[in-house]
Design brief:
single chain; alpha+beta; Serine Protease, Human Cytomegalovirus Protease, Chain A; hypothetical protein PF0899 fold; 9-stranded mixed β-sheet
Length: about 625
């Protein structure tokens, strides 16, 4: 069936950067080939009077071509006259279900084509308009023959243009007609050999008669156009669809996107403002009106309409109006980490020596043989005997290594990222050393990364000559356990031989149980940590998060859960030779353009005073 169209042009062209930052790629709308969609004015979807007619789409190698037909409404006829006077040339598509990689539109479905004042796509323009003069010499007729369109424009040719020719649905007749158009000149040369043509009415002309009225130059131009159209259709059929283009993607309208389904909307701003009052937020109102996978491709210069007098205010891409997110803690990211207050307290209190190989020599004079003896006249005086004990500890290297691409270091300008990284490395190194000194690093003895206990000796597992280990059985009632802890700590305190008044490093769980102990009247026994500190005979109490879930073996070879360690850090020595103290190194890998950072120290550590630490733990009651 033949249909006469009023105008034609490219609804969108491929590989052109649009004003909204997108680029439509070849065959992005291939599925729309041959589809008829509504023709609208400026993407107005809220009023049927803005439906101007319909458009037939044709997917081409360089874009999507459209053939427009106006309806009989007053608005459509007005637009038709505007086009005839060449006052308007802009076209714009409205598509949904977009699939996009970065700024490239790879797939979508066109739902309507609109006449606009200016399109976002620089190639989306009207190139043919049927003029309606009285002599009908400048008319443009477009006929649908099979799946192809034939365009004939007769502006300078003084011939009588025929009425639109009806083409039957018979596929064989359509093929014959196409061949007749393509090979008219060959048939003239073989006129005598050709079959007799059908007789025509006196007032009717065939297509051949019309073609014969053209000059040779005009015939050559027409055949070239038909051949180019046929070649373009063949190329389109040969290209395979990319499977990546058919993958579904999701997209949040208010977040940046990559490989996502793009969402743009043209909502009525007046309605959004009304909803904003109900929802309490302009942002919520905009999100309420967002449509998934929508592309309205008018020029961004007209994204905000003004002065139309018809309440058509709207904003496309409203998230551009929202303020930037701000970091409430300043530009530098805040580390989420364990409480390391105890690290500072311990590392500032331990004894540091300028040598890494620590030797401890102890003379045990607690035995009876070391006691002074009474003398009776005439008897032989006896010699004193005591035991010498020696222990040596050599150093091990402890380190942290980090790297960053130099491009990232240069591009991060909001804060000093190098100082930020180095601060993290220093904090984590000190925490690891303090942990190794008190309870060990917790890694398996088979691990290459283990801090060996022969180099940094943990208080928790040290020899009984240096560490007093005491435990009590766990009861069901927490208050009973707390009371047992206090009793155990006070009794063990009598065996303590360390320097001065020690510090208690304790788990948060046990400290909470101690502070919530109640007397018979329901009142807290210790109203503050100060009262508890005095009762436990320690200088202060420091909580250590890494103590949680730490176990050790007591004197009876039972497994116990660590509750607290009582020690004066001055009795623990950390030694480092000159050059073995904490050092930070910077390097640059020229091959990979990377900044390398290393912080390391080579140290040893051990208790040097007997009975200078008390370890308190809990065991399961048998």
């Amino acid at each position: 069936m033949v249909e006469q169209y009023d105008f034609s042009g490219y609804a969108t062209k491929n590989d052109l950067l649009c004003t909204d930052g997108r680029t439509i790629r070849q065959d992005a709308f291939k599925e729309c080939d041959g589809v008829t969609v509504p023709l609208l004015w400026n993407h107005r979807h809220d009023d049927p009077s803005y439906v101007l007619g319909h458009a037939r789409l044709e997917n081409r190698k360089d874009g999507v071509y459209m053939y427009g037909k106006f309806n009989d409404t007053e608005r459509a006829q007005t637009c038709k006259k505007v086009l005839e006077h060449n006052d308007l040339k802009g076209l714009s598509i409205h598509a949904r279900g977009l699939k996009q990689r970065a700024g490239d539109v790879l797939h979508g479905v066109i739902k309507e084509v609109s006449l606009v004042l200016s399109g976002a796509n620089p190639g989306a323009t009207i190139d043919y308009v049927m003029s309606h003069n009285d002599d009908e010499e400048d008319e443009l007729y477009m006929y649908l023959i099979g799946d192809e369109y034939t365009e004939l424009k007769h502006g300078d040719i003084e011939v009588e243009f025929p009425e639109p020719i009806e083409v039957t649905d018979n596929e064989e007749k359509e093929t014959d007609m196409a061949k007749e158009l393509m090979h008219a000149d060959e048939e003239e040369k073989q006129e005598e050999k050709a079959p007799a043509k059908e007789k025509k009415n006196e007032d009717e002309e065939t297509i051949e008669d019309v073609i014969n009225t053209l000059t040779d130059k005009q015939k050559t131009a027409m055949y070239a156009l038909l051949a180019a159209a046929d070649e373009a259709n063949d190329d389109d059929d040969e290209e395979d669809e990319d499977e990546e283009e058919n993958k579904s993607m999701k997209h949040n309208a208010f977040e940046s996107y990559e490989d996502t389904e793009t969402t743009l909307t043209h909502a009525d701003m007046e309605e959004i403002f009304r909803d904003a009052k109900k929802l309490g937020s302009l942002r919520d109102a905009v999100e309420e009106h967002m449509e998934n996978g929508v592309l309205s491709h008018a020029d961004s210069d007209y994204g905000i309409e003004r002065g139309t007098g018809e309440n058509t205010y709207f904003v496309r891409d409203p998230e551009m109006l929202f303020p930037d997110f701000r970091n409430v803690n300043g530009a530098t990211p805040e580390f989420f980490k364990r409480d390391t207050t105890w690290v500072t307290d311990f590392m500032a209190s331990v004894k540091h020596t300028p040598f890494a190989r620590i030797k401890t020599m102890i003379a045990d004079i607690t035995m009876d043989d070391a006691r002074a003896l009474g003398y009776v006249k005439g008897n032989v005086k006896k010699n004193e005997f005591f035991e010498l004990i020696k222990r040596t500890t050599d150093p091990q290297t402890v380190y942290k290594k980090q790297k960053m691409d130099r491009d990232d270091v240069v591009d991060i300008t909001d804060f000093d990222v190098v100082a930020w990284i180095k601060g993290e490395m220093r904090d984590m190194l000190e925490e690891e050393i303090a942990r190794a000194c008190l309870v060990g690093d917790g890694r398996s003895t088979q691990s290459d990364d283990k801090i060996l206990e022969s180099h940094i000796r943990p208080v928790l597992t040290d020899h009984e000559l240096f560490t007093i280990k005491t435990t009590f059985d766990v009861e069901e009632a927490e208050s009973v356990n707390a009371k047992n802890f206090v009793k155990t700590a006070i009794k063990a305190r009598k065996d303590y031989k360390g320097t001065g008044n020690p510090v208690m490093y304790i788990t948060d769980t046990m400290l909470a149980d101690l502070l919530t102990m109640e007397d018979g009247n329901g009142r807290f026994i210790y109203e503050s940590e100060t009262q508890l500190t005095t009762a436990l005979r320690v200088r202060k109490i420091v909580t250590v998060p890494v103590f949680e879930n730490i176990t050790f073996t007591n004197a009876e070879s039972k497994t116990a859960n660590l509750a607290a360690i009582i020690i004066n850090p001055i009795d623990y020595v950390i030694g480092a030779d000159k050059g073995g103290a904490v050092n930070m190194f910077d390097d640059f890998d020229i091959n990979y353009n990377q900044m390398l950072y290393l912080i390391e120290t080579r140290i040893s550590g051990a208790l040097v005073k007997p009975k200078s630490a008390i370890v308190i733990g809990t065991t399961e009651k048998e």
